[in-house]
Amino acid sequence: MVRWSSLRLPIAITTLIIPTLFALGMAAGYSLYQYRASGLQAQVHVQENRIFHLETQALEKQTEIDKFYSDVSVFKTEVVELTAELGYVEQFLTEQESMTEKAELESLELSDLVGELQLEVEQLKLENKRYSESHDELKPLRASLGPVESDRFLLIELRKDLPGTRRGALLHWENLKRLAIDVDPALGPKADRVLRLLPTYFDWYEQEYESLVARLEEYFNTGAVDFDTVSSDFEKSALLAVIDDLDLVVSFAE
């Protein structure tokens, strides 16, 4: 039989070794766990940083998208407003084109009439010179031709364009008034109306505007259009006065 005393030492050694090995195993396992846990925590941290970065990028992109939609909304509103304004401008320009064509037609008619009257004045002067040399009975006609010279000067001035400066336009209309009074004193008040409106016209004419629409609107709102109206009325009245003088001369000639 194995004696118990002989087994006590191996048992004691085994009792000491097993806990030690167990402790060493536990320590090694814990170290391995700590190492793997540390690696996993690092990966988790990396992933968290990546997620945060992606969320930040997504938020920035969403902000950009929101701004883009906001800009699109603003652009749509501007397009609607510009479309409406364009329609107004097209309508206004159509009306102005019609008025311009009418004014140009009237201007051409007046220009033709002035040319015809000037030609008639020159013909009458030639006739007066020819007949005055041989016919004493034409003395009343010669007397009636006195106003014709004033008519001629007035017609010449009427054919001139309005100067583009305030001072030049003022001198032009003061000269027209003086010549018109020589033809018919009743033309003086009509010329005064033009002179009174001339500053209003040039206040509009010399002003700079943001757009053609604004310029055309102010043309009517400021009263500049009245200057053109009274100018045209004066020119028609002056031509009628010249025609009356010529009719008088013709009646003497007959």
Produce a short descriptive summary.
This protein is mainly α. The chain has helices at residues 4-132, 139-144, 146-158, 166-183, 187-205, 212-221, 224-253.
Proportion in helices: over 70%
Could you list the spans in which at least 5 consecutive residues all have pLDDT below 50? none
Cα radius of gyration in angstroms: 53 Å
N/C terminus separation: 184 Å
Q: Supply the helix-strand structural class.
A: mainly alpha
The number of strands is 0
- What overall geometry do the principal axes of the alpha carbons give? rod-shaped
Our estimate of the beta-strand percent is under 5%
Spell out the helices and strands N to C.
Answer: HHHHHHH
Mean pLDDT: 80
Number of helices: 7
Largest sheet: none
SSE blueprint and pairings:
Elements: H1 4-132, H2 139-144, H3 146-158, H4 166-183, H5 187-205, H6 212-221, H7 224-253
Helix pairs in contact: 1-3, 1-7, 3-4, 3-7, 4-5, 5-7
Q: How would you characterize this protein structure?
A:
This protein has 254 residues and is an all-alpha fold. It has a domain at 105-253. Helix content is 89%, strand content 0%. It contains seven helices and no strands. The protein has helices at residues 4-132, 139-144, 146-158, 166-183, 187-205, 212-221, 224-253. Helix 1 (4-132) packs parallel to helix 7 (224-253), helix 3 (146-158) packs antiparallel against helix 4 (166-183) and helix 4 packs antiparallel against helix 5. The chain is rod-shaped, with a radius of gyration of 53 Å.
